Protein backbone atom coordinates (compact mmCIF):
# COMPACT_ATOMS: atom_id res chain seq x y z
CA UNK A 1 0.00 0.00 0.00
CA UNK A 2 1.57 3.28 -1.02
CA UNK A 3 1.83 5.94 1.72
CA UNK A 4 0.18 8.48 -0.60
CA UNK A 5 -2.84 6.24 -1.11
CA UNK A 6 -3.05 5.44 2.60
CA UNK A 7 -2.92 9.06 3.80
CA UNK A 8 -5.29 10.26 1.05
CA UNK A 9 -7.78 7.58 2.00
CA UNK A 10 -7.46 8.47 5.71
CA UNK A 11 -8.08 12.13 4.84
CA UNK A 12 -11.10 11.31 2.65
CA UNK A 13 -12.74 9.23 5.35
CA UNK A 14 -11.92 11.80 8.03
CA UNK A 15 -13.36 14.74 6.08
CA UNK A 16 -16.47 12.73 5.15
CA UNK A 17 -17.42 12.81 8.84
CA UNK A 18 -15.61 16.07 9.74
CA UNK A 19 -16.83 18.69 7.26
CA UNK A 20 -15.26 21.43 9.45
CA UNK A 21 -11.78 20.15 8.55
CA UNK A 22 -12.37 20.53 4.82
CA UNK A 23 -13.81 24.04 5.40
CA UNK A 24 -10.89 25.17 7.57
CA UNK A 25 -8.34 23.87 5.08
CA UNK A 26 -10.00 25.74 2.25
CA UNK A 27 -10.37 29.07 4.09
CA UNK A 28 -6.68 28.91 5.06
CA UNK A 29 -5.77 28.20 1.45
CA UNK A 30 -7.94 31.10 0.31
CA UNK A 31 -5.78 33.33 2.56
CA UNK A 32 -2.72 32.19 0.61
CA UNK A 33 -1.46 29.31 2.74
CA UNK A 34 -0.35 25.82 1.81
CA UNK A 35 -1.57 23.40 4.47
CA UNK A 36 0.85 20.77 5.87
CA UNK A 37 -0.05 18.02 8.30
CA UNK A 38 1.95 17.77 11.55
CA UNK A 39 0.39 14.51 12.77
CA UNK A 40 -2.65 12.27 12.81
CA UNK A 41 -4.04 10.31 15.76
CA UNK A 42 -5.70 6.93 16.09
CA UNK A 43 -7.53 5.39 19.05
CA UNK A 44 -7.88 1.73 19.96
CA UNK A 45 -8.25 -0.82 22.78
CA UNK A 46 -5.27 -2.71 24.27
CA UNK A 47 -6.81 -6.08 23.33
CA UNK A 48 -4.01 -8.09 21.58
CA UNK A 49 -6.07 -8.21 18.35
CA UNK A 50 -6.11 -4.42 17.93
CA UNK A 51 -3.54 -2.92 20.32
CA UNK A 52 -1.08 -0.14 19.38
CA UNK A 53 1.45 -2.45 17.75
CA UNK A 54 -1.21 -3.96 15.47
CA UNK A 55 -2.41 -0.50 14.42
CA UNK A 56 1.21 0.64 13.91
CA UNK A 57 2.10 -2.20 11.52
CA UNK A 58 1.31 -0.47 8.19
CA UNK A 59 3.23 2.61 9.39
CA UNK A 60 6.26 0.51 10.39
CA UNK A 61 6.13 -1.02 6.90
CA UNK A 62 6.25 2.53 5.46
CA UNK A 63 9.44 3.31 7.41
CA UNK A 64 8.07 4.71 10.67
CA UNK A 65 9.67 3.91 14.05
CA UNK A 66 8.40 4.25 17.65
CA UNK A 67 9.54 7.39 19.53
CA UNK A 68 7.78 8.76 22.64
CA UNK A 69 5.49 7.04 25.17
CA UNK A 70 2.76 8.78 27.16
CA UNK A 71 0.65 7.76 30.17
CA UNK A 72 -2.80 9.10 31.04
CA UNK A 73 -3.68 7.71 34.45
CA UNK A 74 -7.07 9.31 34.99
CA UNK A 75 -8.29 8.46 31.49
CA UNK A 76 -6.75 4.94 31.72
CA UNK A 77 -4.88 5.36 28.44
CA UNK A 78 -1.41 4.73 27.12
CA UNK A 79 -0.03 6.18 23.87
CA UNK A 80 3.02 5.98 21.63
CA UNK A 81 4.10 8.29 18.84
CA UNK A 82 5.88 7.24 15.67
CA UNK A 83 8.11 9.20 13.30
CA UNK A 84 9.34 8.39 9.84
CA UNK A 85 13.02 7.31 9.83
CA UNK A 86 14.16 9.59 7.01
CA UNK A 87 11.24 11.55 5.55
CA UNK A 88 11.07 14.60 7.84
CA UNK A 89 7.96 15.82 5.99
CA UNK A 90 5.99 12.65 6.80
CA UNK A 91 3.33 13.36 9.43
CA UNK A 92 3.93 11.96 12.91
CA UNK A 93 1.52 9.27 14.09
CA UNK A 94 0.03 9.33 17.63
CA UNK A 95 -1.66 6.06 18.65
CA UNK A 96 -3.41 5.62 22.00
CA UNK A 97 -5.12 2.62 23.56
CA UNK A 98 -7.66 2.12 26.36
CA UNK A 99 -6.25 -0.02 29.17
CA UNK A 100 -9.00 -2.64 29.57
CA UNK A 101 -7.55 -4.21 32.72
CA UNK A 102 -8.13 -0.94 34.59
CA UNK A 103 -11.91 -1.21 34.15
CA UNK A 104 -14.51 -3.38 35.88
CA UNK A 105 -15.06 -6.98 34.77
CA UNK A 106 -18.39 -5.86 33.26
CA UNK A 107 -16.89 -3.09 31.10
CA UNK A 108 -13.98 -5.29 30.07
CA UNK A 109 -16.40 -8.02 29.02
CA UNK A 110 -18.56 -5.54 27.09
CA UNK A 111 -15.57 -4.45 24.98
CA UNK A 112 -14.18 -7.96 24.49
CA UNK A 113 -17.67 -9.16 23.41
CA UNK A 114 -17.81 -6.36 20.79
CA UNK A 115 -14.46 -7.53 19.39
CA UNK A 116 -15.47 -11.23 19.62
CA UNK A 117 -18.65 -10.58 17.63
CA UNK A 118 -16.64 -9.04 14.77
CA UNK A 119 -15.31 -11.00 11.78
CA UNK A 120 -11.82 -11.80 13.14
CA UNK A 121 -10.11 -11.62 9.74
CA UNK A 122 -10.64 -7.85 9.64
CA UNK A 123 -8.25 -7.36 12.56
CA UNK A 124 -5.45 -8.93 10.53
CA UNK A 125 -5.80 -6.59 7.57
CA UNK A 126 -3.16 -3.93 7.00
CA UNK A 127 -5.79 -1.34 6.23
CA UNK A 128 -7.77 -1.88 9.46
CA UNK A 129 -7.60 1.83 10.24
CA UNK A 130 -9.34 2.61 6.96
CA UNK A 131 -12.30 0.47 8.02
CA UNK A 132 -14.06 2.63 10.59
CA UNK A 133 -16.47 0.76 12.89
CA UNK A 134 -15.95 -2.87 11.95
CA UNK A 135 -18.52 -4.24 14.41
CA UNK A 136 -22.33 -4.34 14.22
CA UNK A 137 -24.70 -1.40 14.48
CA UNK A 138 -24.15 0.06 17.98
CA UNK A 139 -26.64 -0.12 20.82
CA UNK A 140 -27.48 3.09 22.69
CA UNK A 141 -27.61 1.11 25.92
CA UNK A 142 -24.02 -0.12 25.49
CA UNK A 143 -22.91 3.34 24.34
CA UNK A 144 -24.34 4.97 27.46
CA UNK A 145 -22.89 2.30 29.71
CA UNK A 146 -19.41 2.89 28.23
CA UNK A 147 -19.89 6.68 28.38
CA UNK A 148 -20.53 6.47 32.12
CA UNK A 149 -16.96 5.20 32.66
CA UNK A 150 -14.97 6.50 29.66
CA UNK A 151 -15.74 9.07 26.97
CA UNK A 152 -12.93 7.50 24.93
CA UNK A 153 -14.46 3.99 25.12
CA UNK A 154 -17.90 5.26 24.06
CA UNK A 155 -16.43 7.31 21.18
CA UNK A 156 -14.39 4.32 20.01
CA UNK A 157 -17.46 2.04 20.13
CA UNK A 158 -19.32 4.33 17.72
CA UNK A 159 -16.49 5.62 15.50
CA UNK A 160 -14.15 2.63 15.33
CA UNK A 161 -10.82 2.72 13.47
CA UNK A 162 -9.94 5.99 11.74
CA UNK A 163 -7.82 9.08 12.06
CA UNK A 164 -9.64 11.03 14.77
CA UNK A 165 -7.82 14.22 13.76
CA UNK A 166 -5.36 15.69 11.33
CA UNK A 167 -3.21 18.56 12.61
CA UNK A 168 -2.25 21.72 10.79
CA UNK A 169 1.46 22.54 11.02
CA UNK A 170 1.15 26.21 12.06
CA UNK A 171 4.91 26.81 11.61
CA UNK A 172 4.37 26.34 7.87
CA UNK A 173 1.39 28.70 7.50
CA UNK A 174 2.51 31.79 5.57
CA UNK A 175 -0.10 34.29 6.78
CA UNK A 176 -0.03 33.48 10.52
CA UNK A 177 2.81 34.07 12.96
CA UNK A 178 1.52 32.13 15.93
CA UNK A 179 -1.22 29.87 17.24
CA UNK A 180 -3.31 32.57 18.86
CA UNK A 181 -3.66 34.31 15.47
CA UNK A 182 -4.90 31.03 14.01
CA UNK A 183 -7.37 30.58 16.87
CA UNK A 184 -8.70 34.13 16.40
CA UNK A 185 -9.12 33.49 12.67
CA UNK A 186 -11.03 30.25 13.34
CA UNK A 187 -13.31 31.87 15.93
CA UNK A 188 -14.07 34.80 13.63
CA UNK A 189 -15.12 32.21 11.07
CA UNK A 190 -17.57 30.64 13.51
CA UNK A 191 -15.61 27.62 14.77
CA UNK A 192 -15.65 26.67 18.46
CA UNK A 193 -12.33 25.93 20.13
CA UNK A 194 -11.81 23.24 22.76
CA UNK A 195 -11.10 25.42 25.79
CA UNK A 196 -10.55 22.61 28.29
CA UNK A 197 -7.25 23.52 29.99
CA UNK A 198 -7.20 26.83 28.07
CA UNK A 199 -7.49 27.43 24.32
CA UNK A 200 -3.74 26.98 23.92
CA UNK A 201 -2.24 23.87 25.51
CA UNK A 202 1.52 23.88 26.20
CA UNK A 203 3.96 26.81 26.01
CA UNK A 204 7.18 27.98 24.32
CA UNK A 205 9.12 26.49 27.27
CA UNK A 206 7.50 23.11 26.66
CA UNK A 207 8.43 23.58 22.96
CA UNK A 208 4.93 22.82 21.74
CA UNK A 209 1.66 24.76 21.63
CA UNK A 210 -1.56 23.11 20.49
CA UNK A 211 -5.20 23.98 20.02
CA UNK A 212 -8.17 22.23 18.46
CA UNK A 213 -11.76 22.80 17.46
CA UNK A 214 -14.50 20.79 19.15
CA UNK A 215 -15.36 17.69 17.14
CA UNK A 216 -18.13 17.76 14.57
CA UNK A 217 -21.15 15.58 15.29
CA UNK A 218 -22.87 13.17 12.94
CA UNK A 219 -26.17 11.33 13.02
CA UNK A 220 -25.51 7.72 14.03
CA UNK A 221 -27.96 4.86 13.58
CA UNK A 222 -28.23 2.88 16.82
CA UNK A 223 -30.33 -0.25 17.29
CA UNK A 224 -32.74 1.96 19.23
CA UNK A 225 -32.85 4.81 16.66
CA UNK A 226 -30.82 7.82 15.55
CA UNK A 227 -28.67 10.09 17.73
CA UNK A 228 -26.00 12.72 17.03
CA UNK A 229 -22.56 11.65 18.26
CA UNK A 230 -19.20 13.40 18.01
CA UNK A 231 -17.01 12.34 15.11
CA UNK A 232 -13.59 13.93 14.61
CA UNK A 233 -11.86 17.28 15.06
CA UNK A 234 -9.02 19.40 13.60
CA UNK A 235 -5.90 20.32 15.58
CA UNK A 236 -3.31 23.11 15.19
CA UNK A 237 0.29 22.75 16.38
CA UNK A 238 3.16 25.21 16.68
CA UNK A 239 6.59 23.76 17.51
CA UNK A 240 9.68 25.51 18.94
CA UNK A 241 13.33 24.52 18.38
CA UNK A 242 15.15 22.58 21.10
CA UNK A 243 18.82 23.04 22.12
CA UNK A 244 20.16 21.39 18.94
CA UNK A 245 18.20 23.83 16.77
CA UNK A 246 15.68 21.26 15.45
CA UNK A 247 11.99 21.71 16.08
CA UNK A 248 10.76 19.61 19.03
CA UNK A 249 9.03 16.56 17.53
CA UNK A 250 7.38 14.93 20.55
CA UNK A 251 4.07 15.34 22.34
CA UNK A 252 3.19 16.59 25.85
CA UNK A 253 1.08 14.30 28.02
CA UNK A 254 -0.48 17.19 30.00
CA UNK A 255 -1.61 18.87 26.78
CA UNK A 256 -2.69 15.67 25.05
CA UNK A 257 -4.87 14.90 28.08
CA UNK A 258 -6.96 17.98 27.25
CA UNK A 259 -6.83 17.54 23.45
CA UNK A 260 -8.52 14.12 23.89
CA UNK A 261 -11.53 16.01 25.26
CA UNK A 262 -12.22 17.59 21.86
CA UNK A 263 -14.63 14.70 21.22
CA UNK A 264 -16.35 15.02 24.62
CA UNK A 265 -20.13 15.25 24.22
CA UNK A 266 -20.32 17.26 27.46
CA UNK A 267 -18.02 20.03 26.15
CA UNK A 268 -20.17 20.04 23.03
CA UNK A 269 -23.20 20.78 25.20
CA UNK A 270 -25.08 18.13 23.26
C1 LIG B 1 -5.40 12.19 20.75
C2 LIG B 1 -5.22 13.37 21.67
C3 LIG B 1 -3.77 13.80 21.87
C4 LIG B 1 -2.01 15.40 20.82
O1 LIG B 1 -1.59 15.95 19.80
O2 LIG B 1 -1.52 15.63 21.94
C5 LIG B 1 -3.16 14.47 20.69
C6 LIG B 1 -6.81 11.75 20.53
O3 LIG B 1 -7.76 12.54 20.64
O4 LIG B 1 -6.98 10.57 20.22
O5 LIG B 1 -3.56 14.34 19.58
NI1 LIG C 1 -2.93 15.61 18.18
From TrEMBL:
Residue runs in coiled coils: none
Keywords: Dioxygenase, Iron, Oxidoreductase
CC cofactor: Fe(2+)
EC annotation from Swiss-Prot or TrEMBL: 1.13.11.93
Gene3D superfamilies recorded: 3.10.180.50
Family: Belongs to the 2-oxoadipate dioxygenase/decarboxylase family.
Protein name: 2-oxoadipate dioxygenase/decarboxylase
Organism, scientific name: Aquimarina mytili
Amino acid sequence: MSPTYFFNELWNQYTAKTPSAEKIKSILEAEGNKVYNDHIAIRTFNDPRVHIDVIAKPFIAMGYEPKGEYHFEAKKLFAKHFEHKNDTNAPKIFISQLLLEEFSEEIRKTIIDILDQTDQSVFKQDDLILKGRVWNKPSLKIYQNLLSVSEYAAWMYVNGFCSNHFTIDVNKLKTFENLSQVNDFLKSNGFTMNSSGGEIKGSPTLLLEQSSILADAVEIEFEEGYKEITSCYYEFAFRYPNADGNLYSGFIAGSADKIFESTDMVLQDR
